């Protein structure tokens, strides 16, 4: 069932927590805002009714203009994971992008139904659907009746750095109802994950498990290791991936201030206060595929040529574009435990790590 937006001039929904994160041109968001004036934002609501192409924020604008739901119409939204809707949006994406393998695991749907222009010159009906899984993201925009208007308007999408911004190339608003980039009148579709590959030295796992606790100072559940990991004479059969940038073995640890003498075994690629509620993903996987084992074995042989070693398991944990708690930038890094029953190695890969004043 759809949730209705507040009836308010230049209003917005509250922050809507997404059950599954949405990847947008390399950035990953766990929340979204449906703004009354015809656009979606991710980090905060936007009340502006005058469209700005360089808005310095990530924004999806099926029709950004001054709308007034006080005079009529409804603005509603839902995140849908029902089999029927996922099958419908998957079929649409597969039809429009036949060369991109895709199966939706979530769909976020926002609908403006007969909402009047602020100046009173008619009502508009349109819908935007975010169809996505953990790797791929698509936008489907459906236009109903869009009357002519003298108001400023813009349709398309914008990125915070303006690198991937796109404006639907029509000169009059009513043309949105009859134009298309997929040969279906009134429908537009875009692939927007735009995710740059992790740095080449990183292990890129398509089927990694996402840490489900999108919360401050949380951790994964206990992860049972298929093969035990030897750590300075102690052997562990489980591991925890803690959101604040470290691994533990016996229990999760919520501390965000790093402690050198913590009286426990810890592997800390970057122990600091991180906040995956705002964006980014934290993921992990124990990997025993031949390709990954060959990759980590080759790395160990290169770095430790005098130690005979062949990996039989690799545990990979990745923090991808996760913000600092204080908001001062994002970090990307990865830790790999490469091991067999006799030997254990840690490989740490750093991508972009922003400067911070945090401990």
Automatic annotation (TrEMBL):
For this protein, the record's Pfam families field holds: NIDO (PF06119)
What GO biological process terms does the UniProt entry carry, in alphabetical order? cell-matrix adhesion
- SUPFAM superfamilies xrefs: EF-hand
* Domain NIDO residues, every copy: 62-195, 269-359
Q: What is this protein called?
A: NIDO domain-containing protein
- Species the sequence originates in: Cyprinus carpio carpio
